[in-house]
Give the backbone structure.
Amino acid sequence: MTKPRFLVAAGVLVFFGVSAAATAQSRFEEGVFTELNRFRSDPAAYTDYLRDYRPRFEGKLLVAEDDSEIDIMTREGVVAVDEAIRDLGREKPLPTLEWSDALSRAAADHVAIQSRSGAVGHYTKGRGPGERMKARGGGPYVNEVITYGHHTPEGVVDQLLIDDGVPDRGHRHSLLRSTHRYAGVACGSHPAHRTMCVILMSQTRDGSPPPPPQRKSP
């Protein structure tokens, strides 16, 4: 049986003069951020949610839970799910992340481009996440993860942790990085995959250089 996940918003956002669709999108992004911190607060316990994926596989096809999603043909099937469960079961709690408007705006710039072009990946017009953050007045010390095709906050985080088809499991390791202290999330539509979500994380609020390590007193 699928275990319910009751989302507790990290904060209450009030919008004036915006459409209902924009407000709903903001709630989705906030839900992704909340789910990300749910995972980081107890990675080992989060494996209970990943186990719910196993019955949804027909071979390597991940079957959509409802009409709002699409079936996804994975490369590894349950193999990647089982590996994620084993990997996360050894992890200790991580520091939770603080929301960063600066990181969120740089993530939204990427969503705006790919929602029109239908492109995928971290680079558009030769600019990667570091260049996008610098264009927003910050620094290049950021780490970016992206999902395509998932329509729930839980699905976004689960996909990153399972990391199907990525040999080095780079997205999973990014979410497990203890030095990350801030994150910004932006989600939107995508011509080929219906939806996409971009998460930018950093040790600092705007991707500026982290402070040097403090020397211990002799």
Notes: The longest strand covers residues 182-190. Confidence is low (pLDDT under 50) at residues 6-23. Strands lie at 57-58, 61-62, 72-73, 98-99, 143-148, 182-190, 194-202. DSSP finds seven helices and seven strands in the chain.
